[in-house]
Amino acid sequence: MSKMIADSREMGQMLLNAKCAGFVAQKFGILLDMNADRVEVSRDESGNRWLIRIQVGEEVIRRYYKEAKNVDKDTLRSAAAKTATDEGYTVDPSSIVFA
Question: What are the sequence ranges of the domains in the chain?
Answer without folding.
Answer: 1-31, 38-98
